[in-house]
Design goal:
Blueprint (H helix, E strand, L loop, with lengths): L4 E5 L6 H11 L10 E6 L4 H7 L6 E4 L16 H6 L4 E4 L2 H7 L3 H13 L3 E8 L1 H5 L3 H12 L5 H4 L3 E6 L11 H18 L2 H6 L1 E4 L8 H5 L6 E4 L6 H8 L6
Parallel strand pairs: 1-2, 1-8, 2-3, 4-5, 5-6, 6-7, 7-8
Helix pairs in contact: 1-12, 5-7, 7-9
């Protein structure tokens, strides 16, 4: 049984004061973590304070990114070892914005996946799909290549821990979410790819999320699909009241 995963990615938004207030406001309004897992990914500047304020609540605090080395002359980067020391459970890697603006390749994403797992954290591996690849009919190969490269060298027992987020970049922040059938098609493709890499059993254990203009109007239908185990929301995660709706999707009609 895959526990639903409702995640938020704040990107470069909110202040430290706003971040702490956000956690304090919603932490008592979330479902039990055994029923629905709730995670907010925030700036590395906020993580320690947010973790402190989320103690004894279901909410977990994740990192939006990290580097693939624990130490070194890498000015401005975030060490995965440092994230592990403050008890960060999840780290997002491979987000389309990291690929687009910072030229992160599939091979770099793979290095980051290894570094996160080495430090006993769980990677949330994002795979992108551009409108160009969609229009050309090449979107399936585009997504499959990102997954196979990201998981290269990862043992199947370890692979069961990872979370994968299917995020078509043409839907991120645009208000134009993929249709329910498009989102399910992408997540189904990813699960079949995982089965090809490992086995049906392993593929059935890995949680696959959809991200791209998720809101309280489309989450119920998305969560009814067999291969969508959760969402990774952007804009809808910036307000406590909106994130609470997503986390409590089972109560929405």
């Amino acid at each position: 049984m895959r526990v639903p995963f409702i995640g938020g990615n704040w990107k470069m938004n909110l202040s430290l004061t706003e971040a702490v207030a956000f956690v304090d406001e919603l932490k008592q309004q979330l479902p039990d973590k055994n029923e629905v897992e709730t995670v907010i990914a925030a700036s590395p500047l906020f993580l320690s304070a947010m973790i402190d304020h989320s103690l004894n609540s279901p909410l977990q605090i994740a990192a939006e990114n990290c580097f693939y080395e624990d130490y070194g002359a890498f000015t401005g980067e975030v060490s995965p070892k440092s994230l592990a020391e403050i008890k960060v459970p999840y780290v997002i890697v491979g987000h389309s914005e990291r690929r687009r603006y910072f030229n992160e390749t599939n091979d770099i994403v793979n290095k980051k996946v290894h570094s996160i797992l080495r430090n006993q954290m769980t990677p949330i591996i994002c795979c992108d799909e551009t409108m160009g690849s969609l229009d050309s009919g090449d979107h399936f190969a585009w997504v499959v290549n990102q997954i196979t490269t990201a998981l290269h060298g990862i043992d199947e027992e370890v692979a069961k821990q990872v979370v994968i987020a299917y995020e078509p970049s043409w839907a991120i922040g645009t208000g134009n979410s993929a249709s329910t059938s498009e989102a399910e098609e992408g997540c189904y493709l990813i699960r079949q790819t995982l089965a090809d890499i490992y086995s049906d059993e392993v593929a059935d254990e890995i949680r696959i999320l959809y991200g791209g203009s998720v809101n309280d109007q489309n989450i119920v239908k998305l969560m009814q699909e067999p291969d969508i185990d959760g969402v990774l929301a952007g804009k809808a995660s910036l307000q406590p009241s909106e994130f609470v709706k997503l986390a409590n999707f089972k109560r929405l009609k």
